[in-house]
Amino acid sequence: MSKIKESLSLIWKEFIYGGHFQSLGAVGIVFISAILLKIDITWDVLFVTYLLIYPSYLYNRFVEIKIDYLTNPGRTEYLKSYISYTPLIVFLVISILIGSLIYFSNFWALIFGLLLLLFSFLYTIFFKKLTKKIVFLKNLYVSTAFSFFVFFLIVYYAYHWTSTLIIGVFILMIFVYFKTFVMQIFLDVKDTETDKKEGLLTFPIILGKEKTFNILKIFSILATVPIPIIFSLYFNIFPKSVLMLLLVVPFNFYCFKLSRQQNYFGYILASGEFILWPILILIGKILL
Predict the structure, then answer these.
(1) Topology, domain 2-287
(2) pTM of the predicted protein model
């Protein structure tokens, strides 16, 4: 029995600390985009999306493992157990990604996918240093990267662009951008000590944690509420099931409350918000 518990604990740590949980967020964005844009998808696009984001998470944690110990000691200790194999794992995952894009999709998806992968790596390699000089660059950069996954879905299937599709993609990219922006501000709260040591300019460092939490509540409402209501009820761009995403607001508030109580689980929940989206939308398709 103890071996089973130990194995389950190891799987859980790998799932959370290894970046798999966060990587599924990008999969959630692609999945929900397919539903809202009425695009039939196959399993391979979800698999490829996961491969697109996972190596960058793993590489970031590999590079920053020493300084990350200040705010994520449990994660650091776990990742040390296979740190010597991390470069090989990253290389293998990227190789599988390239092979999958060649086999399942098209030339432009391969190019766009590799550019998206490069974009995610460049933050750790180069752009994070600029966060010491440019306020909120980290939030802007990560938000842009995640919004691109909406566009990637269209490129992957080489869809013919129509005016309705263009509007839908554009609005979804804006929605994902603002929601990611809010999420990153919140996740920066837990990294305050690490970011302060590195001299990064983030919301919690500039405004303080308490002001950041107060602003986050307002940002959460503004980023979540208008788009689903306006573009489903008034412009009929998205199906009514998108209104279920309004429930993300109380979800965000609950995560904020947990973190204020020094409960680290609040940050774990928040990083999985995009996984919640497809669940809410699928429920909405039944109820609305």
Answers:
(1) Farnesyl Diphosphate Synthase (1.10.600)
(2) 0.94
